[in-house]
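OP here, attaching both records as promised.
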Amino acid sequence: MTNDLRLEDAVNETCPWSGDPIAADSLTIYKEQVVGFCNTGCRDKFEKATTAFELALSAKQD
């Protein structure tokens, strides 16, 4: 999934968690945009957090 994502497509240049430069192996899609992180740990932390928030918002709307 993330193998075809490119650094130049990322909406950010620095990791929102650490402030370090983003890495090509640490990109993800969020709201149809490429978002970059400095490492896969930061990327995975972001994905877990956003998934939890999306589920909570969805449950609240039901």
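Record two, same layout:
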Amino acid sequence: MDVSTEEAEVGALSDTYEAALLANDRDVLGRMFLGDDRVLRFGIADVERGHEELRAWRARSPGVPATRRVTTRVVMGLAPGVVAVDLTFVNGDEPGFGRQSQTWVRTADGWRIARAHVSMQDAPPPAASPA
């Protein structure tokens, strides 16, 4: 499989992930992460290590604001079977913007997120580009 095909597949999954975030669909979000003790997610004010910690956190998380909107997204193949997704987002008219990075790996069960990081920045959001 070539890099552009992998990037397209993971780009589509990134769209699915965003839709699940907005719907607070915990089952879909949980399935998108690698079911492994080595999965890692650095959140805005939290850290989850391992799939079970991640599922437990997601179960008690209130979800993202319904006004969340992706403003930029870059999908880049890093190696065969490894794709990074980096995006920025805004939450409606709230000040600042968020940043989200994910490392996706291809497994026997399909693409899964192995690493994720989310942070917020107080500065004005970067100029919008196609997501």
